[in-house]
Design goal:
This protein is α+β, with helices and mostly antiparallel strands. The strands form 11 sheets. Strands 1, 7, 29, 31, 32, 35, 37 and 39 form an 8-stranded mixed sheet that branches. An 8-stranded mixed sheet has the order 40-43-42-41-44-47-46-48, sandwiched between helices. A 5-stranded mixed sheet has the order 3-2-5-6-4, with helices on both faces. Strand 11 and strand 12 (373-374) form a beta hairpin. Helix 2 runs parallel beside helix 5 (72-83), helix 13 packs antiparallel against helix 14 and helix 42 (1292-1301) runs parallel beside helix 48 (1412-1419). The longest helix is centred in the middle third of the chain and has 22 residues, at 876-897. It is globular and about 120 Å long. Residues 10-17, 230-254, 1190-1213 and 1505-1516 have low confidence and may be disordered.
Amino acid sequence: MGAACCLLIVYMLCLVEAKPKYVSQVLEAKWQSTPLLLEASEYIAKEGNDQFWAFVNDVARLKVSDVKSDSDQSHYHLIQKLASKQLSPIQLNLLKFSLSLREYSPTVEMYNQIARENEKAEQCSTFAVVHGETTCDAKKVKNLIKSAESRPKPPVYTLDHVYPGQNRDVVVVLYAELGTEEFKQFHSILQELAAEKKISYILRHYTQKLPDKKVRLSGYGVELAIKSTEYKAKDDTKVKDEKDKDKDEADEGEDEIQGFIFSTLKEKYPDKKKELRELKMHLSDTATELSPLKVWQLQDLSLQAAQRVVSADASDALNHLTQISQNFPQLARSLVRQSVKSELREEIHKNQMDFDTYHNLGAGESAMFLNGLPVDLEIYDIFTLLGVMRSEAKVMEGLFSLGLRGDRLNQMLKLDLKTEESYALDTRHSAVQNINDLEKDKKYKTWPSSTRDILQPTFPGMLRHIAKNFFNLVFIVDPMDKNSRELLKMAEAFYVHSAPMRIGIIFVVDFSKDTNGFMDAGVALTRAFDFIKTDEKPSRALSFITDVYQKAGANPVSVEDVIAEFKGRYKDTDMDMVFGDTDDYDDVRQSCGDFLRQTGLQEFPQVLLNGVPLKRESLNEDGFEEVVVTEVLRVTPILQRAVYNGDLTDNMDVTDWLMDRENVMPRLNSRVLSPSTQFLDFTENIDGDIFNSEDFEQLTPLDMSSVIAQNMNYLVKKEDDSAKAVTIWVVADLETAKGRELAYSAIKSLKSTPEMRLGFIFNPVSLAAKELNINKAVHVAMATLSGHIAKSFVTKLVKEENVAALNSGAKTLIDLEVNGMDMKAYLAALKKESNTVLKNHKSFVEKAIKFDVGVRGVIANGRVLGPFGEDENFIQEDFTLLEKYTFQTSGMKIQRKLTFEDTPWQEASEQIMKTGALLSSRRQSDTSRKELHFKGKQHSVVHIKADVDAPTFEVEAILDPLTREAQKMAPILAVLKEVANVNIRIFMNCRDKLSEMPLKNFYRYVLEPEIRFKVDGSYSAGPSAKFTDMPQKSLLTLNMDPPESWLVESVMSPYDLDNILLEEVATGVNAIFELEYLLLEGHCYDSVSGQPPRGLQFVLGTNSTPAVMDTIVMANLGYFQLKATPGVWFLRLREGRSSDIYDISTHDFTDTPEGSSDLVVAINSFKSKIIKVRVAKKKEKLKEDLLKDEEEKPGIWDSISNTITGSGTPEETDSTLNIFSVASGHLYERFLRIMMLSVLKNTKSKVKFWFLKNYLSPTFKDFIPYMAEHYGFEYELVQYKWPRWLHQQTEKQRIIWGYKILFLDVLFPLHVKKFIFVDADQIVRTDLQELHDLDLEGAPYGYTPFCDSRKEMDGFRFWKSGYWASHLGHRKYHISALYVVDLKKFRRIAAGDRLRGQYQGLSQDPNSLSNLDQDLPNNMIHQVSIKSLPQEWLFCETWCSDEELARAKTIDLCNNPLTKEPKLKAAMRIVPEWKNYDYEIKLFWDSVYGTNTAEDIEYEKPFQEDSSNVTPRTDL
């Protein structure tokens, strides 16, 4: 034992003496650190405007010295203390997490950017802007307000903080930092003025002096990938004979581990075999260096990892999962000896069958659910996940406060309130002008005509052509409206192309009888339609309307246009009879008016399919046909089921059957069916007795809602023991006729449903004393009378003729007495009643419902409908629809889930109402909540339990512990566990029979649950990624894994992050990255053609700088992207052909202020921003081609540009030789500089280099300006984010290959007509102008074919056989090291879009596109032709014979799969001038930086000369 102990002691000493090396990475934002107090205020603003201003007021009441605090930590605690007044405990914890993420730093920085646009920003720390006039003196604000209305109002954004109780006529914008003395002065004045409704007070954050440090970020991933060999020879691996199969496992593998040679030790100590084996195992398991595993050892690794995680204590399981997934290459050998229980294997296998069946997940795939909501971490960044948690927390806490616990709470949380079937409108009305009839028209005579034909199979997505009116498409349109014009054109197209549906039209025009066809073009079109459909047929009438549109073009249709077209067809017809005051051809118009008044439709255009309104956002040419087909396919199974079951037969009228279904209503009110944005919150627990006191007005809106609910009295159809699933409150002033009409309609609808109870919220215009106040009379009646007596009496009170009689004195209240009523007691109670209730109701309406006095509205289970317009009617049928809609979406579902045994019906009804309000208020996700299906959870599931006595997040994860998804998911789950009360279940979904290492990287996800502090109370350095105990002999490459919308670059590291070899590093590698830009993405379409306008250019700028960034629209999805920093930006068409030909017509998901003609986009979040833009050609440019060969005005490109010799004119730009190249890592950057020098030495033309910025090192980006100035060339660093919709590559080399070919049409501005790509490891020996001028013979690009003269490489020429031989035919396979691109031709034939489309299809197969940058253009050679360049344009020794070197115009340092010769060695051997170029650059480098790199070279000095006269830098 002594020897073994000695060995262990030696080993421990080695560990002590070893210096662990690390890789450390941090990521900072480009902007300076913003105050946490302001970020916290933005978090609270998301809870509500009232909470934001309450927080602001609390800050304003503090002393400035208290706000600043003694230390960072005490300031942080103050923020929590202030926030706790507005936030619940869960939300407060999420606030801490949000501050750790610096989630709202971009929002604060956005306000700073807006402020800096003002010229006073540099002079004042706080200032107010009053309609364009700025003051830094709070005392001068009132004077500016007096003259404000004479000046234009400033834009008000949806993201602005507007003080409650505003006056929209005068807008005052305050730029200030919360907690400063200047803010307090301004705020006290503006708050008072706003409270008096003299101004609209807007607060925008502004911090004049920000700290020097930048915002340290988290919420991203970092990987250290083990770098793979680029080329592998086929005979690399030799199979060895297995001679000693009895050998112990410990004797296999490496003989030397960490300096111990075990063969020697075994010879010296033969009696210590067991101890030596244990030591060898320990050293192997703890070694940082990686050793390969045998194939049989790989098979169960995933299951072994799962077993280790599941076997750990639940409290430590997440830590095990994180360690294994993130450090797998080092831990793989220790996992090999982990035994796997058969129970775990079996349970995983059984669960996988359910995962496949119910969740479409195969073995090894991952999924995550938060309260049943699917969370795809490829789409959801941590900021989006936090937003979902905030939304869920509010509902969870509400349900908890309503008394729900445990499983009941979770079941209610997962309740899906989306309607199963849409409501439809009965369209059996003479107003519907049917263009066709599939059952009667000769056009459809040859079609099958039985209802049973709908059961016949057809191809997926195809419509069945059956002569039955199964599908009725009704267009409700204003013929003068632009969108309606397009819809009518599509209606005609559906008819002309024999779409299997009945087409109907309802016209929305001026229905006044005083308006005739000579006065209004819409009326003229309708009357002309009436005449033509009578004289000929409806289809001819529709054709007339579209002909009028065609002749009017883009201009509005005039009366003259209609009459002129009509006269041209019907010359002998009396125009006065058709268009004048007679009623001869006015039936269509009048019936349309009757129909619209009866049905309650309000917003137009609308299109109904079998009475169901289609989504209004789809009523455009972009997606109309698709949405119609989708809806038809959705409805088809319903019809099939009805036919199959015999419910719909040939003897029945199909239209009648469709219109008699339960979901069909005589009236559809869009107020009822449109999503609401306002809901009352009844979750606060407060004593309801305060209702009858003056203190009620001091309550918060939430408290008010709770108190009102507790004190509400109800009318019901019949009092019984059943809970009422629908609670409706009518908001009205019953002193007005309109208010009484609304109440009367509600009471009438009450008589037809037992599921509803009805209450009243009084909103009186006046509280002045009056002999009889109907509001007070109704309130007292409902408070003192019971059941049917109250209902009957209140019905009489609100009946209009009774009120008229009461007011005139013809009747008294006694005359309205109903049977069983104690009128004497009622009158006594009425006389005693004060105005307190009415006053409190009025206050509730103003503060909580946010209606003006006297305004009407309706509240259904907490959902606010209104305010109603002065002339808006909400009749009995609307209440019936509202009751039915509310019952089916929430009331019935909640009633079924909640059991109310021994609960009074009033309490049960109250619970349904409050729960319904809460659940309906959350955003209904497009993705349904899912119940996780599985067979077992005993042996393969990790369960980390939460505190059952508090609201709980339910998180369920399905994962394979050895996947990239697990690397990210594990640390996120660990942090969520610290942030909130989370019940976590992790289901293992392992792959078995692995044949290769499942993970070949180390990974860190940078995330902290809360801000950390040093011992002295100051902020810690901030979150970072740190890799310790990494293998020192493995070549590693550092890659960032940021959220989709982040553009990140390395800004500081002397090390080559692409090739990290820790054994060459003294202590460790440090790297600083910067979030340079946030991405603005969009999709653009032509509003007329519906197609993307290829080549259209947008510019993004500010008021002071209109063009800061620009971009080009792709044909793929009309996609474009722009880089931006936090701020408010203006998106415009770029000057030149884009703005000459097109105008922006409409846009969605932007932040444009109401009434503004600009397209405004606010970049205020770390989350993705995606907009949609529609453009239209100008009238005089309809036939213009955007990509026509004309010069475009030069503009700023979305890149970093440094033009040393001046910008030049477009003609000069075109004469410039454009060279494009990519590089990653210091070695290739060294090659790149040499390539550039070789180009410059041999080319006479002006040269401009274009480099892909994404992967360049900080040292290269720092050096290139000096090199450009010294050698007199131009350069530009271009940058493009790989679009999220395009299949992603994960390996850096393949990503770089993708950039070489996939985005050529959008990387360069339009004025660049041609460029040459030159690989970084290439040496040019000729003037590249010759290649630029080469005739490509109509091809968009030219490539050099691979040489075939070096015969010993024939075995590696894969293109000579198999797929490539048959695909290429007589054509050659081309190399991507050098190519020339004619961008004009490339864009004109949409080559980029074709290449991306082909890539998207092929890249799904991991075995295709092995050499992406070469395989893709060669694969597309039949669709995008390649001009084969003469062979002398590219020499590669690997493929070309030595004789060809003398003729070579460029030399590429290809890898050689036979010799594997290092590139540096090959360069010095093959290219004599390479050493001269390299040495010249080193001398120049030393002159810039004052270093001595020229002395550290791999060759003898080729020449000696004095250093350049460049002054060395001293700031390094």
